[in-house]
Design brief:
Blueprint (H helix, E strand, L loop, with lengths): L1 H71 L12 H29 L10 H15 L2 H15 L8 H18 L13 H18 L7 H6 L1 H8 L8 H11 E3 L7 E3 L2 H7 L4 H10 L13 H22 L8 H21 L2
Antiparallel strand pairs: 1-2
Length: 355
């Protein structure tokens, strides 16, 4: 009897000890998990902190340049801009400033890839602001769709028969056909095509639209009668720098450094000028600014609207970084106010247009 009682007590003690041990182990794992999560948050924040100053500097530099272009029409970007050293420098430095910012954004992405467990839920305002900047550079499907819609109106095809997913695919296919005729992919060079080439290109596009939407093909003589209007629509200027292109440009702009707070730095203007001569990726940025007249904002050159949206996203990015990082690493309040004034005007302009 006494022996059984002692055995029961021993068993109970064993169970209690095991339970305490298991509970202690679970608590240790829980606490360790919280510590690791906090460590990852701290590392994520430290990455943004170490890059905040150069990102703000690069963003501010580009924002001031675009403000100058938008407010004073950027004479050095105009189609008839005089060919001289100063105008060439202004054009080149404008492209360099955008490439530099893409480089800093890419550097942050690379450093994040070294940290296990970093998620998109950390520092969401900064990530969203960077994402908005990348989006306005890359997102141009609505323009291709708009070209499709105008061609349908011009030649009397039924738009309502075209589903949204088909619209986007057709927009891409139209672009592919155009670039068969202008291999350099510079839209303004459509005007250099002769009449037969223009007719062949436009007919191929209209045949594609008719076939894909199961409508009767437009007669070639009808296409010919409205050819110049159609060519104007097809020749719309735009320059979308897609996400993968942005990464490629960023890769070209970054250099690895040793022994600093950061793993990466950005090449200087002199090195950039040497590198861009035969560099496929760095050259893509030039197309955003070449022959740009911001005084004419219509559907035939969507880059004007794009540059305005880029400016808005830049000021927003500066504002978010200013809120998230210590004040001494941001820009002056007066500088941000000046930049924000134009941002607000542009946003009001888009609101009036319903965009």
């Amino acid at each position: 009897m006494i022996l059984n009682r002692r055995m029961n007590i021993d068993l109970l003690n064993t169970i209690i000890s095991a339970g305490v041990g298991a509970g202690s182990a679970m608590l240790t794992l829980y606490v360790d998990g919280i510590r690791k999560k906090n460590d990852r948050k701290r590392e994520d924040y430290n990455i943004y902190k170490s890059y905040s100053k150069p990102i703000i500097a690069a963003t501010e530099s580009l924002a001031w340049r675009l403000r100058e272009v938008l407010m004073f029409n950027g004479a050095y970007l105009l189609p008839d801009a005089p060919v001289n050293g100063f105008f060439k420098y202004k054009f080149d430095s404008t492209s360099y400033r955008l490439c530099s910012l893409l480089g800093w954004v890419r550097a942050v992405q690379k450093e994040h890839s070294y940290i296990e467990g970093i998620t998109h839920s950390q520092n969401p305002k900064i990530r969203n602001a960077i994402g908005c900047f990348q989006k306005v550079l890359a997102d141009g499907s609505h323009v291709e769709v708009s070209i499709l819609e105008e061609l349908c109106k011009l030649y009397g095809l039924e738009e309502r028969e075209i589903q949204d997913n088909i619209r986007q695919k057709l927009g891409v296919e139209i672009e592919r056909i155009v670039f068969i005729f202008i291999p350099d992919q510079v839209k303004k060079n459509i005007s250099n095509l002769n009449q037969e080439q223009k007719l062949e290109m436009t007919t191929s596009i209209m045949d594609l639209i008719s076939d894909q939407t199961h409508q009767q093909r437009v007669d070639k003589e009808v296409i010919k009668s409205k050819l110049e209007i159609a060519v104007d629509e097809i020749a719309r200027e735009f320059c979308w720098i897609y996400r993968d292109w942005q990464n490629a440009i960023g890769d070209e702009m970054t250099i690895k450094i040793e022994g600093g707070k950061r793993y990466y730095d950005i090449i200087g203007f002199s090195e950039y000028m040497k590198k861009r001569i035969d560099n496929e990726w760095l050259g893509k940025v030039d197309n955003l600014f070449a022959n740009l007249d911001v005084s004419i904002d219509n559907r035939f050159d969507t880059r004007v609207s794009q540059v305005k949206r880029i400016y808005i996203s830049l000021v927003e990015l500066i504002s978010v970084l200013n809120e998230s990082i210590e004040d001494e690493e941001g820009i002056s309040k007066s500088g941000l106010t000046t930049l924000a004034d134009l941002k607000n005007k542009l946003e009001q302009e888009f609101d009036k247009q319903g965009l």
